[in-house]
Design brief:
alpha/beta, about 400 residues, about 15% strand
Length: about 400
């Protein structure tokens, strides 16, 4: 019997191929034969071959492939026919591709890397079983092996320019939806600048009272759930892009190498301390974790520990993360110097400490990583998935 990981190579910078390879290696270190099956023209043929050997369970990143085999006339999926558990592990909020987050089949289980993502799914999305939360393990090992060179921070981040986004919404001043989006964006940006204590999706929902929702449903000509999810999707990146732009503005005189698209407005400043570069597949960018100062990371939501920080942890690299991740709750220790919000000067002070002693900063990051791995080990992650697969089998056959 084996484990199948569904892989899709079409994502921006192809993150799933890298994730799949790391997870395959992790499961096989635990004695579990694992197949990575690409979602392409050969998928059904390869699944048939693997199924002949026997499948314990399937892992789907972000719920990709959840509806394979279903049609408008017959919602039965491939997984219902094969009768194998599909464990969907999500690093994105459920407002993105909501069809990949539904849980109407007894063979499907959704697990989220962030607690607030699971909360949203359980509150608003149709499901027969509740979504759960399990933090991501440190499964990334790229072979940096302690060789750190270069006195600069690395900031790997694609961006959608906040000014351009807001300008597009201002272009429709008579639309209730445009007014709502601008008001919510202002509240999200203000929260980050004032300490980043509240989940920006909770801010959005707090503004969607019954009267506002009725107006927005009429404007968008759709039902409440569709409108709610759509508004969350439109506003989701405001938070992360605000964090990203804050990094560039706050560290104006700090040496940065910024990898990613969307930075044209900032490139035009011609800041000699900032270098803008491009990168391709995630599997080819281990070099980004080898500078003496380490990486800067912008989490997608205030309670998230993002995969780039987790990858830095796997490499013994330094990091500063734009998040309010609850280290005191999860690790019972204070790691506040590794996390930043939009409070003026906060990130600048942390960057100063790093530049004054990169070795001491990396030591603190390694201590954080060790504590994290004790609480959320790769072994426990795999055992959690194995336990969930057995639970799904019992439920579906019960």
């Amino acid at each position: 019997m084996s484990i199948v990981i569904i892989n899709w190579r079409g994502g921006e910078n192809d993150p799933f191929t890298y994730f799949s390879a790391c997870m395959k290696q992790a499961f096989e270190r635990m004695g579990r034969p694992t197949h990575v099956v690409n979602l392409d023209d050969s998928f059904m043929q390869e699944m048939a071959r693997v199924n002949d050997e026997g499948i314990d369970f399937v892992i789907s990143w972000q719920g990709i492939g959840l509806d394979i085999g279903a049609t408008d006339a017959d919602p039965t999926t491939l997984w219902d026919r094969l009768q194998v558990p599909v464990l969907c592990y999500h690093g994105d909020h459920p407002c993105h591709m909501p069809g990949n987050h539904k849980a109407m089949s007894p063979w499907v289980e959704h697990i989220y890397s962030t607690a607030s993502f699971a909360m949203f799914a359980n509150r608003f999305l149709p499901r027969r079983s509740g979504a759960s939360f399990f933090p991501p393990p440190v499964s990334f090992t790229d072979g940096v092996q302690g060789r750190f060179e270069g006195d600069f921070f690395v900031f790997p981040k694609n961006i959608d320019d906040v000014e351009s986004t807001l300008a597009n919404w201002r272009a429709a001043p008579d639309r209730p939806v445009a007014r709502f989006l601008l008001g919510a964006a202002d509240a999200i940006i203000g929260e980050f600048r004032n300490g980043n204590r509240n989940n920006h999706h909770d801010i959005i929902d707090g503004m969607l009272d019954a009267e506002s929702m009725a107006i927005l449903c009429e404007d968008l000509e759709n039902e409440e759930l569709v409108v709610r999810v759509h508004l969350h999707m439109l506003l989701d990146k405001i938070h992360r892009n605000t964090v990203s732009e804050h990094v560039i503005n706050e560290l104006e005189d700090v040496p940065l190498k910024i990898y990613g698209r969307g930075w044209e407005r900032f490139e035009r400043r011609q800041n000699p301390r900032h270098e803008y570069l491009s990168f391709d597949a995630m599997s080819d960018n281990a070099f980004q974790y080898a500078s003496r100062y380490g990486i800067l990371d912008a989490a997608p939501i205030h309670d998230s520990l993002h995969d780039r920080t987790v990858r830095a942890m796997g490499n013994g690299s330094g990091f500063l993360m734009g998040s309010n991740w609850s280290y005191e709750t999860f690790l019972a220790a204070d790691y506040g110097n590794l996390f930043f919000d939009g409070t003026p000067g906060g990130l600048r002070d942390r960057a100063e400490r790093v530049m004054q002693s990169p070795e001491a900063h990396r030591a603190l990051c390694r201590d954080f990583a060790q504590q994290y791995k004790r609480n959320f080990s790769l072994f426990n992650f795999i055992k959690y998935f194995e336990g969930m697969s057995e639970m799904v089998k019992t439920r579906a056959r019960g």
